[in-house]
Protein backbone atom coordinates (compact mmCIF):
# COMPACT_ATOMS: atom_id res chain seq x y z
CA UNK A 1 0.00 0.00 0.00
CA UNK A 2 2.85 2.31 0.87
CA UNK A 3 4.52 1.57 -2.54
CA UNK A 4 1.34 2.34 -4.42
CA UNK A 5 1.03 5.62 -2.59
CA UNK A 6 4.63 6.53 -3.52
CA UNK A 7 4.05 5.75 -7.21
CA UNK A 8 0.87 7.82 -7.21
CA UNK A 9 2.63 10.81 -5.65
CA UNK A 10 5.50 10.52 -8.17
CA UNK A 11 3.16 10.46 -11.15
CA UNK A 12 1.20 13.38 -9.75
CA UNK A 13 4.37 15.40 -9.16
CA UNK A 14 5.71 14.62 -12.65
CA UNK A 15 2.41 15.57 -14.26
CA UNK A 16 2.23 18.78 -12.26
CA UNK A 17 5.81 19.69 -13.23
CA UNK A 18 5.00 19.22 -16.90
CA UNK A 19 1.86 21.26 -16.65
CA UNK A 20 3.68 24.14 -14.97
CA UNK A 21 5.55 24.77 -18.22
CA UNK A 22 3.05 25.99 -20.76
CA UNK A 23 3.41 26.17 -24.52
CA UNK A 24 4.38 29.74 -25.39
CA UNK A 25 4.53 30.76 -29.06
CA UNK A 26 4.21 34.50 -28.62
CA UNK A 27 7.68 35.45 -29.91
CA UNK A 28 10.78 33.84 -31.52
CA UNK A 29 12.50 33.28 -28.17
CA UNK A 30 9.47 31.62 -26.57
CA UNK A 31 8.81 29.35 -29.57
CA UNK A 32 12.39 28.05 -29.79
CA UNK A 33 12.55 27.61 -26.00
CA UNK A 34 9.27 25.66 -26.01
CA UNK A 35 10.54 23.37 -28.78
CA UNK A 36 13.88 22.55 -27.15
CA UNK A 37 12.66 22.44 -23.54
CA UNK A 38 10.03 19.77 -24.14
CA UNK A 39 12.56 17.55 -25.94
CA UNK A 40 15.05 17.48 -23.03
CA UNK A 41 15.37 14.22 -21.11
CA UNK A 42 14.17 15.73 -17.81
CA UNK A 43 11.23 17.59 -19.40
CA UNK A 44 10.36 15.29 -22.29
CA UNK A 45 6.92 16.03 -23.71
CA UNK A 46 7.12 15.78 -27.54
CA UNK A 47 3.46 16.65 -28.04
CA UNK A 48 4.07 20.11 -26.59
CA UNK A 49 7.29 20.49 -28.65
CA UNK A 50 5.26 19.62 -31.75
CA UNK A 51 3.06 22.68 -31.16
CA UNK A 52 5.87 24.72 -32.74
CA UNK A 53 5.09 22.97 -36.04
CA UNK A 54 2.05 24.46 -37.72
CA UNK A 55 -0.43 22.75 -40.07
CA UNK A 56 0.75 19.10 -39.74
CA UNK A 57 -0.79 16.05 -38.07
CA UNK A 58 0.49 15.47 -34.54
CA UNK A 59 2.56 12.36 -35.34
CA UNK A 60 4.27 14.03 -38.31
CA UNK A 61 4.76 17.26 -36.35
CA UNK A 62 6.48 15.30 -33.54
CA UNK A 63 8.79 13.66 -36.07
CA UNK A 64 9.68 17.00 -37.63
CA UNK A 65 10.28 18.64 -34.23
CA UNK A 66 12.61 15.80 -33.18
CA UNK A 67 14.55 16.01 -36.42
CA UNK A 68 15.05 19.75 -36.07
CA UNK A 69 16.62 19.22 -32.65
CA UNK A 70 18.70 16.28 -33.89
CA UNK A 71 20.07 18.37 -36.76
CA UNK A 72 21.00 21.20 -34.39
CA UNK A 73 22.62 18.75 -31.94
CA UNK A 74 24.41 16.86 -34.70
CA UNK A 75 26.01 20.05 -36.01
CA UNK A 76 26.89 21.21 -32.51
CA UNK A 77 24.74 24.34 -32.84
CA UNK A 78 24.17 25.61 -29.30
CA UNK A 79 21.21 27.98 -29.02
CA UNK A 80 22.00 31.12 -27.03
CA UNK A 81 18.60 32.38 -25.87
CA UNK A 82 20.07 35.72 -24.77
CA UNK A 83 20.56 36.60 -28.44
CA UNK A 84 17.12 35.52 -29.67
CA UNK A 85 14.61 38.41 -29.89
CA UNK A 86 11.59 38.48 -27.60
CA UNK A 87 9.71 41.05 -29.67
CA UNK A 88 6.40 39.55 -30.90
CA UNK A 89 6.60 41.75 -34.01
CA UNK A 90 10.28 41.17 -34.75
CA UNK A 91 11.09 41.64 -38.42
CA UNK A 92 14.47 41.10 -40.08
CA UNK A 93 13.82 43.07 -43.29
CA UNK A 94 14.86 46.63 -43.94
CA UNK A 95 12.53 48.03 -46.57
CA UNK A 96 8.89 48.47 -47.48
CA UNK A 97 7.85 44.80 -47.15
CA UNK A 98 8.06 43.47 -43.60
CA UNK A 99 9.21 39.90 -43.02
CA UNK A 100 8.35 38.51 -39.60
CA UNK A 101 11.06 35.87 -39.61
CA UNK A 102 14.08 34.92 -37.50
CA UNK A 103 16.91 32.63 -38.68
CA UNK A 104 18.64 30.80 -35.82
CA UNK A 105 22.05 30.31 -37.47
CA UNK A 106 22.28 32.44 -40.65
CA UNK A 107 25.82 31.34 -41.51
CA UNK A 108 25.89 27.64 -40.63
CA UNK A 109 22.22 26.59 -40.92
CA UNK A 110 20.23 29.24 -42.84
CA UNK A 111 17.34 26.90 -43.68
CA UNK A 112 16.13 26.61 -40.08
CA UNK A 113 14.02 29.60 -39.03
CA UNK A 114 10.83 30.62 -37.27
CA UNK A 115 8.18 32.94 -38.65
CA UNK A 116 5.05 34.63 -37.45
CA UNK A 117 1.76 33.09 -38.57
CA UNK A 118 -1.31 34.99 -37.39
CA UNK A 119 -0.49 35.86 -33.76
CA UNK A 120 1.92 33.02 -32.98
CA UNK A 121 5.44 32.06 -34.06
CA UNK A 122 6.12 28.63 -35.60
CA UNK A 123 8.90 26.99 -37.53
CA UNK A 124 8.78 28.29 -41.10
CA UNK A 125 7.43 26.37 -44.07
CA UNK A 126 10.94 26.46 -45.53
CA UNK A 127 12.25 24.64 -42.44
CA UNK A 128 9.49 22.01 -42.56
CA UNK A 129 10.11 21.35 -46.26
CA UNK A 130 13.87 21.01 -45.90
CA UNK A 131 14.27 19.31 -42.52
CA UNK A 132 14.20 15.76 -43.93
CA UNK A 133 16.92 16.61 -46.45
CA UNK A 134 18.98 18.29 -43.72
CA UNK A 135 18.54 15.26 -41.47
CA UNK A 136 19.71 12.88 -44.20
CA UNK A 137 22.66 15.16 -44.87
CA UNK A 138 23.71 15.23 -41.21
CA UNK A 139 22.97 11.54 -40.64
CA UNK A 140 23.68 9.65 -43.90
CA UNK A 141 21.75 6.40 -44.29
CA UNK A 142 24.86 4.28 -44.71
CA UNK A 143 26.23 5.47 -41.37
CA UNK A 144 22.87 4.98 -39.63
CA UNK A 145 22.89 1.38 -40.85
CA UNK A 146 26.17 0.75 -39.02
CA UNK A 147 24.45 1.52 -35.72
CA UNK A 148 21.99 -1.32 -36.32
CA UNK A 149 24.87 -3.81 -36.24
CA UNK A 150 26.48 -2.53 -33.04
CA UNK A 151 26.46 -5.39 -30.46
CA UNK A 152 25.35 -4.85 -26.88
CA UNK A 153 28.99 -4.77 -25.74
CA UNK A 154 29.51 -1.74 -27.97
CA UNK A 155 27.04 0.27 -25.90
CA UNK A 156 29.14 -0.01 -22.74
CA UNK A 157 30.51 3.35 -21.67
CA UNK A 158 34.04 4.52 -21.00
CA UNK A 159 34.32 8.03 -19.51
CA UNK A 160 30.67 8.56 -20.40
CA UNK A 161 31.17 7.65 -24.09
CA UNK A 162 29.96 4.39 -25.65
CA UNK A 163 32.66 2.05 -26.94
CA UNK A 164 31.25 1.94 -30.47
CA UNK A 165 31.50 5.76 -30.64
CA UNK A 166 35.17 5.63 -29.61
CA UNK A 167 35.94 2.91 -32.15
CA UNK A 168 34.07 4.67 -34.97
CA UNK A 169 35.85 7.95 -34.13
CA UNK A 170 39.26 6.27 -34.49
CA UNK A 171 38.19 4.69 -37.79
CA UNK A 172 36.81 8.05 -38.99
CA UNK A 173 40.05 9.92 -38.27
CA UNK A 174 42.09 7.08 -39.82
CA UNK A 175 40.09 7.28 -43.06
CA UNK A 176 40.45 11.08 -43.05
CA UNK A 177 44.23 10.65 -42.74
CA UNK A 178 44.30 8.36 -45.80
CA UNK A 179 42.09 10.79 -47.74
CA UNK A 180 44.55 13.57 -46.87
CA UNK A 181 47.49 11.79 -48.52
CA UNK A 182 45.49 10.82 -51.60
CA UNK A 183 44.08 14.32 -52.08
CA UNK A 184 47.52 15.84 -51.52
CA UNK A 185 48.93 14.04 -54.55
CA UNK A 186 45.80 14.66 -56.68
CA UNK A 187 45.56 18.38 -55.81
CA UNK A 188 49.25 18.98 -56.57
CA UNK A 189 48.89 17.19 -59.91
CA UNK A 190 45.81 19.27 -60.84
CA UNK A 191 47.36 22.56 -59.69
CA UNK A 192 50.50 21.90 -61.69
CA UNK A 193 48.48 21.10 -64.82
CA UNK A 194 46.38 24.25 -64.43
CA UNK A 195 49.47 26.39 -63.84
CA UNK A 196 51.23 24.99 -66.91
CA UNK A 197 48.13 25.54 -69.06
CA UNK A 198 47.99 29.19 -67.97
CA UNK A 199 51.70 30.12 -68.00
CA UNK A 200 53.20 27.46 -70.33
CA UNK A 201 56.28 27.36 -68.10
CA UNK A 202 57.69 25.01 -65.47
CA UNK A 203 58.99 27.43 -62.90
CA UNK A 204 60.65 25.71 -59.91
CA UNK A 205 59.61 28.47 -57.51
CA UNK A 206 55.95 28.23 -58.56
CA UNK A 207 56.06 24.44 -58.22
CA UNK A 208 57.35 24.89 -54.67
CA UNK A 209 54.40 27.17 -53.89
CA UNK A 210 51.99 24.65 -55.43
CA UNK A 211 53.35 21.85 -53.23
CA UNK A 212 52.77 24.00 -50.16
CA UNK A 213 49.31 24.90 -51.46
CA UNK A 214 48.38 21.22 -51.85
CA UNK A 215 48.84 20.57 -48.09
CA UNK A 216 46.03 22.78 -46.73
CA UNK A 217 43.71 21.84 -49.62
CA UNK A 218 44.08 18.17 -48.69
CA UNK A 219 43.53 18.98 -45.01
CA UNK A 220 40.34 20.85 -45.91
CA UNK A 221 39.05 17.77 -47.73
CA UNK A 222 39.84 15.66 -44.64
CA UNK A 223 38.03 18.15 -42.38
CA UNK A 224 35.03 18.15 -44.72
CA UNK A 225 34.91 14.34 -44.49
CA UNK A 226 35.00 14.43 -40.66
CA UNK A 227 32.31 17.16 -40.53
CA UNK A 228 30.06 15.06 -42.78
CA UNK A 229 30.34 11.78 -40.88
CA UNK A 230 30.93 12.86 -37.26
CA UNK A 231 27.29 13.87 -36.46
CA UNK A 232 26.22 10.29 -37.22
CA UNK A 233 28.20 9.09 -34.20
CA UNK A 234 25.48 10.73 -32.08
CA UNK A 235 27.62 12.42 -29.49
CA UNK A 236 25.92 14.91 -27.21
CA UNK A 237 25.35 18.56 -28.07
CA UNK A 238 28.23 19.78 -25.92
CA UNK A 239 30.73 17.33 -27.48
CA UNK A 240 29.57 18.22 -31.01
CA UNK A 241 29.73 21.94 -30.19
CA UNK A 242 33.42 21.81 -29.25
CA UNK A 243 34.37 19.34 -31.99
CA UNK A 244 32.76 21.47 -34.71
CA UNK A 245 34.20 24.66 -33.23
CA UNK A 246 37.70 23.18 -33.42
CA UNK A 247 37.08 21.84 -36.94
CA UNK A 248 35.71 25.18 -38.15
CA UNK A 249 38.62 27.13 -36.66
CA UNK A 250 41.08 24.68 -38.25
CA UNK A 251 39.27 24.96 -41.60
CA UNK A 252 39.36 28.77 -41.42
CA UNK A 253 43.09 28.77 -40.64
CA UNK A 254 43.72 26.38 -43.54
CA UNK A 255 41.63 28.54 -45.87
CA UNK A 256 43.67 31.58 -44.84
CA UNK A 257 46.83 29.60 -45.59
CA UNK A 258 45.42 28.49 -48.96
CA UNK A 259 44.59 32.04 -50.02
CA UNK A 260 47.95 33.37 -48.82
CA UNK A 261 49.77 30.76 -50.91
CA UNK A 262 47.38 31.41 -53.79
CA UNK A 263 48.27 35.11 -53.62
CA UNK A 264 51.96 34.18 -53.80
CA UNK A 265 51.38 31.94 -56.82
CA UNK A 266 49.28 34.56 -58.62
CA UNK A 267 51.83 37.29 -57.86
CA UNK A 268 54.69 35.08 -59.07
CA UNK A 269 52.85 34.38 -62.33
CA UNK A 270 52.05 38.09 -62.67
CA UNK A 271 55.70 38.88 -61.97
CA UNK A 272 56.75 36.63 -64.86
CA UNK A 273 54.25 38.43 -67.07
CA UNK A 274 55.54 41.88 -66.07
CA UNK A 275 59.12 40.79 -66.77
CA UNK A 276 58.12 40.23 -70.40
CA UNK A 277 56.58 43.70 -70.74
CA UNK A 278 58.53 46.75 -71.83
CA UNK A 279 57.68 48.98 -68.89
CA UNK A 280 59.01 48.43 -65.39
CA UNK A 281 56.17 50.17 -63.57
CA UNK A 282 54.27 46.86 -63.57
CA UNK A 283 57.24 45.29 -61.78
CA UNK A 284 56.88 47.89 -59.03
CA UNK A 285 53.17 47.06 -58.77
CA UNK A 286 53.86 43.40 -57.84
CA UNK A 287 55.04 43.95 -54.22
CA UNK A 288 52.34 46.57 -53.63
CA UNK A 289 49.58 44.23 -54.86
CA UNK A 290 51.09 41.37 -52.87
CA UNK A 291 50.93 43.33 -49.61
CA UNK A 292 47.43 44.61 -50.37
CA UNK A 293 45.96 41.17 -51.17
CA UNK A 294 47.73 39.60 -48.18
CA UNK A 295 46.16 42.24 -45.93
CA UNK A 296 42.68 41.56 -47.32
CA UNK A 297 43.04 37.78 -46.79
CA UNK A 298 44.24 38.21 -43.20
CA UNK A 299 41.49 40.74 -42.40
CA UNK A 300 38.66 38.58 -43.79
CA UNK A 301 40.12 35.49 -42.09
CA UNK A 302 40.26 37.38 -38.79
CA UNK A 303 36.58 38.38 -39.16
CA UNK A 304 35.66 34.75 -39.85
CA UNK A 305 37.48 33.59 -36.71
CA UNK A 306 35.65 36.22 -34.68
CA UNK A 307 32.33 34.96 -36.08
CA UNK A 308 33.16 31.39 -35.04
CA UNK A 309 33.98 32.59 -31.53
CA UNK A 310 30.56 34.24 -31.29
CA UNK A 311 31.73 37.84 -31.63
CA UNK A 312 29.54 40.21 -33.61
CA UNK A 313 31.68 41.27 -36.58
CA UNK A 314 29.25 44.07 -37.46
CA UNK A 315 30.42 46.04 -34.44
CA UNK A 316 34.05 45.31 -35.32
CA UNK A 317 33.59 46.51 -38.91
CA UNK A 318 31.74 49.59 -37.70
CA UNK A 319 34.54 50.35 -35.26
CA UNK A 320 37.16 49.89 -37.95
CA UNK A 321 35.16 52.14 -40.30
CA UNK A 322 34.78 54.90 -37.72
CA UNK A 323 38.44 54.60 -36.75
CA UNK A 324 39.44 54.62 -40.40
CA UNK A 325 37.34 57.73 -41.01
CA UNK A 326 38.91 59.51 -38.05
CA UNK A 327 42.36 58.46 -39.18
CA UNK A 328 41.62 59.64 -42.73
CA UNK A 329 40.49 63.03 -41.48
CA UNK A 330 43.61 63.33 -39.35
CA UNK A 331 45.91 62.38 -42.19
CA UNK A 332 44.40 63.83 -45.34
CA UNK A 333 47.79 64.18 -47.01
CA UNK A 334 48.39 60.45 -46.67
CA UNK A 335 45.00 59.69 -48.23
CA UNK A 336 45.78 62.10 -51.08
CA UNK A 337 49.08 60.33 -51.66
CA UNK A 338 47.36 56.94 -51.77
CA UNK A 339 44.89 58.26 -54.34
CA UNK A 340 47.81 59.72 -56.28
CA UNK A 341 49.50 56.31 -56.22
CA UNK A 342 46.40 54.70 -57.70
CA UNK A 343 46.23 57.36 -60.43
CA UNK A 344 49.91 56.85 -61.30
CA UNK A 345 49.42 53.11 -61.72
CA UNK A 346 46.26 53.64 -63.76
CA UNK A 347 47.59 56.39 -66.05
CA UNK A 348 51.20 55.12 -66.16
CA UNK A 349 52.79 58.51 -66.98
CA UNK A 350 56.23 56.91 -66.60
CA UNK A 351 57.97 53.60 -65.97
CA UNK A 352 60.75 52.58 -63.64
CA UNK A 353 64.02 53.69 -65.25
CA UNK A 354 62.49 56.54 -67.28
CA UNK A 355 64.18 59.93 -67.26
CA UNK A 356 61.58 62.52 -66.28
CA UNK A 357 61.40 66.24 -65.67
CA UNK A 358 58.84 67.39 -63.09
CA UNK A 359 58.90 71.10 -62.24
CA UNK A 360 62.51 71.82 -61.27
CA UNK A 361 63.38 68.15 -60.65
CA UNK A 362 65.06 66.07 -63.31
CA UNK A 363 66.21 62.48 -62.90
CA UNK A 364 65.57 58.74 -63.27
CA UNK A 365 62.54 57.09 -61.66
CA UNK A 366 63.74 54.41 -59.25
CA UNK A 367 60.70 53.41 -57.19
CA UNK A 368 56.98 54.12 -56.86
CA UNK A 369 55.68 53.49 -53.34
CA UNK A 370 52.34 53.84 -51.55
CA UNK A 371 53.08 57.40 -50.47
CA UNK A 372 55.84 58.84 -52.67
CA UNK A 373 57.97 58.30 -55.76
CA UNK A 374 61.75 58.19 -55.58
CA UNK A 375 63.72 59.94 -58.37
CA UNK A 376 67.51 59.91 -58.61
CA UNK A 377 68.94 63.15 -59.99
CA UNK A 378 71.95 63.71 -62.22
CA UNK A 379 74.15 64.29 -59.16
CA UNK A 380 72.95 60.88 -57.79
CA UNK A 381 70.94 62.56 -55.03
CA UNK A 382 67.47 61.22 -54.21
CA UNK A 383 64.24 63.20 -54.56
CA UNK A 384 61.15 61.94 -52.66
CA UNK A 385 58.11 63.45 -54.38
CA UNK A 386 54.64 62.89 -52.82
CA UNK A 387 52.42 61.00 -55.25
CA UNK A 388 49.58 63.49 -54.72
CA UNK A 389 51.80 66.27 -56.08
CA UNK A 390 53.23 64.08 -58.83
CA UNK A 391 49.72 63.22 -60.04
CA UNK A 392 48.90 66.93 -60.45
CA UNK A 393 52.02 68.53 -61.97
CA UNK A 394 53.15 68.39 -65.59
CA UNK A 395 55.63 65.58 -66.22
CA UNK A 396 57.97 65.55 -69.19
CA UNK A 397 58.83 61.90 -69.70
CA UNK A 398 62.07 61.77 -71.62
CA UNK A 399 61.92 58.01 -71.46
CA UNK A 400 58.94 57.91 -73.83
CA UNK A 401 60.84 59.58 -76.65
CA UNK A 402 61.31 57.40 -79.70
CA UNK A 403 64.86 58.75 -80.15
CA UNK A 404 67.20 61.19 -78.43
CA UNK A 405 67.64 64.31 -80.54
CA UNK A 406 71.04 66.02 -80.58
CA UNK A 407 71.32 69.47 -82.10
CA UNK A 408 74.45 71.61 -82.25
CA UNK A 409 76.34 74.04 -84.47
CA UNK A 410 79.98 73.73 -85.54
CA UNK A 411 81.81 77.02 -86.10
CA UNK A 412 84.72 77.07 -88.58
CA UNK A 413 86.97 79.93 -89.59
CA UNK A 414 85.75 82.55 -92.03
CA UNK A 415 88.74 82.03 -94.31
CA UNK A 416 87.88 78.35 -94.92
CA UNK A 417 87.62 77.76 -98.71
CA UNK A 418 84.20 76.73 -100.08
CA UNK A 419 85.65 73.42 -101.30
CA UNK A 420 86.67 72.46 -97.76
CA UNK A 421 83.31 73.60 -96.34
CA UNK A 422 81.58 71.21 -98.75
CA UNK A 423 84.10 68.48 -97.93
CA UNK A 424 83.66 68.97 -94.19
CA UNK A 425 79.84 68.80 -94.44
CA UNK A 426 80.09 65.69 -96.61
CA UNK A 427 82.48 64.05 -94.15
CA UNK A 428 80.20 64.72 -91.15
CA UNK A 429 77.28 63.20 -93.05
CA UNK A 430 79.24 60.04 -93.80
CA UNK A 431 80.26 59.77 -90.13
CA UNK A 432 76.58 59.91 -89.14
CA UNK A 433 75.73 57.18 -91.64
CA UNK A 434 78.60 55.01 -90.39
CA UNK A 435 77.70 55.54 -86.71
CA UNK A 436 75.72 52.48 -85.47
CA UNK A 437 73.94 54.48 -82.74
CA UNK A 438 72.47 57.16 -85.02
CA UNK A 439 69.50 57.13 -87.39
CA UNK A 440 71.10 57.23 -90.81
CA UNK A 441 67.75 57.98 -92.48
CA UNK A 442 67.03 61.09 -90.41
CA UNK A 443 69.69 63.77 -89.96
CA UNK A 444 70.66 67.29 -91.08
CA UNK A 445 74.18 68.63 -91.72
CA UNK A 446 74.11 71.97 -93.53
CA UNK A 447 76.04 75.24 -93.78
CA UNK A 448 73.23 77.36 -92.39
CA UNK A 449 74.59 80.77 -91.46
CA UNK A 450 77.24 83.33 -90.65
CA UNK A 451 78.10 83.91 -87.02
CA UNK A 452 79.95 86.80 -85.41
CA UNK A 453 83.29 85.03 -85.74
CA UNK A 454 82.56 81.73 -87.52
CA UNK A 455 80.84 80.02 -90.40
CA UNK A 456 78.07 77.93 -88.82
CA UNK A 457 77.47 74.26 -89.69
CA UNK A 458 74.15 72.89 -88.39
CA UNK A 459 74.29 69.28 -87.09
CA UNK A 460 70.93 67.72 -86.22
CA UNK A 461 71.08 63.98 -85.45
CA UNK A 462 69.00 61.36 -83.58
CA UNK A 463 70.52 58.70 -81.31
CA UNK A 464 68.74 55.35 -81.09
CA UNK A 465 69.35 54.56 -77.40
CA UNK A 466 67.07 56.23 -74.85
CA UNK A 467 69.50 55.75 -71.96
CA UNK A 468 71.34 58.87 -70.89
CA UNK A 469 74.70 57.10 -70.40
CA UNK A 470 74.61 55.42 -73.81
CA UNK A 471 73.72 58.75 -75.42
CA UNK A 472 76.77 60.44 -73.88
CA UNK A 473 79.05 57.63 -75.06
CA UNK A 474 77.61 57.93 -78.58
CA UNK A 475 78.20 61.70 -78.56
CA UNK A 476 81.80 61.15 -77.50
CA UNK A 477 82.50 58.83 -80.44
CA UNK A 478 80.72 61.23 -82.80
CA UNK A 479 82.67 64.27 -81.59
CA UNK A 480 86.06 62.51 -81.80
CA UNK A 481 85.33 61.50 -85.40
CA UNK A 482 84.45 65.11 -86.32
CA UNK A 483 87.65 66.42 -84.73
CA UNK A 484 89.72 63.87 -86.67
CA UNK A 485 87.90 64.79 -89.89
CA UNK A 486 88.64 68.49 -89.36
CA UNK A 487 92.32 67.76 -88.68
CA UNK A 488 92.62 65.54 -91.77
CA UNK A 489 91.04 68.19 -93.99
CA UNK A 490 92.92 71.08 -92.39
CA UNK A 491 89.69 72.78 -91.28
CA UNK A 492 90.12 75.01 -88.22
CA UNK A 493 87.38 75.57 -85.66
CA UNK A 494 86.75 79.22 -84.92
CA UNK A 495 86.64 80.94 -81.56
CA UNK A 496 85.52 84.48 -80.68
CA UNK A 497 88.04 86.87 -82.20
CA UNK A 498 88.52 90.22 -83.87
CA UNK A 499 90.32 90.71 -87.20
CA UNK A 500 92.23 93.91 -88.04
CA UNK A 501 92.82 94.52 -91.75
CA UNK A 502 96.07 96.46 -92.54
CA UNK A 503 96.59 97.46 -96.14
CA UNK A 504 100.02 97.99 -97.79
CA UNK A 505 102.13 97.20 -94.72
CA UNK A 506 105.75 97.13 -96.01
CA UNK A 507 107.80 93.92 -95.75
CA UNK A 508 104.91 91.91 -94.18
CA UNK A 509 103.42 88.75 -95.65
CA UNK A 510 99.83 87.64 -95.45
CA UNK A 511 98.83 85.53 -92.38
CA UNK A 512 96.22 83.58 -94.36
CA UNK A 513 96.39 79.80 -93.80
CA UNK A 514 97.50 77.61 -96.64
CA UNK A 515 94.52 75.32 -97.23
CA UNK A 516 94.90 72.20 -99.38
CA UNK A 517 91.87 72.16 -101.67
CA UNK A 518 93.08 69.34 -103.90
CA UNK A 519 90.02 67.16 -104.65
CA UNK A 520 92.02 63.95 -104.48
CA UNK A 521 93.45 64.90 -101.09
CA UNK A 522 89.98 65.83 -99.81
CA UNK A 523 88.40 62.50 -100.85
CA UNK A 524 91.33 60.53 -99.46
CA UNK A 525 91.10 62.35 -96.10
CA UNK A 526 87.33 61.79 -95.78
CA UNK A 527 87.59 58.11 -96.71
CA UNK A 528 90.45 57.56 -94.27
CA UNK A 529 88.64 59.20 -91.35
CA UNK A 530 85.34 57.35 -91.96
CA UNK A 531 87.07 53.97 -92.35
CA UNK A 532 89.07 54.54 -89.17
CA UNK A 533 85.88 55.51 -87.28
CA UNK A 534 84.05 52.39 -88.48
CA UNK A 535 87.01 50.13 -87.68
CA UNK A 536 87.47 51.53 -84.16
CA UNK A 537 83.77 51.28 -83.35
CA UNK A 538 83.57 47.63 -84.39
CA UNK A 539 86.43 46.56 -82.08
- The radius of gyration computed from the alpha-carbon positions, rounded to a whole number of angstroms, is 44 Å
The share of residues in helices is 55-70%
Compute the number of helices. 16
Q: Strand pairing plus helix content: what structural class?
A: alpha+beta
For this structure, the quaternary state is single chain
Protein name: Mechanosensitive ion channel protein MscS
Transmembrane segments: 166-191, 212-230, 242-263, 284-303, 309-330
Family: Belongs to the MscS (TC 1.A.23) family.
Membrane topology: Multi-pass membrane protein
Describe the structure.
- GO terms for molecular function: mechanosensitive monoatomic ion channel activity.
- Belongs to the MscS (TC 1.A.23) family.
- The protein is α+β, with helices and mostly antiparallel strands and 539 residues long.
- It has four domains: 19-138, no CATH class; 157-329; 332-400, SH3 type barrels, CATH 2.30.30.60; 404-538, Alpha-Beta Plaits.
- 56% of the residues lie in helices and 15% in strands.
- It has 16 helices and 13 strands.
- The protein has helices spanning 2-20, 28-37, 46-49, 58-74, 125-138, 141-148, 163-199, 204-229, 237-276, 281-308, 313-330, 332-347, 387-390, 418-434, 468-489, 519-538; strands at 101-105, 109-117, 120-123, 157-158, 161-162, 355-358, 361-368, 372-377, 382-386, 395-397, 404-412, 438-450, 455-463.
- The strands form four sheets. The chain has a five-stranded antiparallel beta sheet. Strands 1-2-3 form a three-stranded antiparallel beta sheet, with helices on both faces. The chain has a three-stranded antiparallel beta sheet with strand order 11-13-12, with helices on one face.
- Helix 4 crosses helix 5, helix 14 runs parallel beside helix 16 and helix 15 runs antiparallel to helix 16.
- The longest helix is centred in the middle third of the chain and has 40 residues, at 237-276.
- The radius of gyration is 44 Å and the shape is elongated.
- Mean pLDDT is 78; it is low at 1-19.
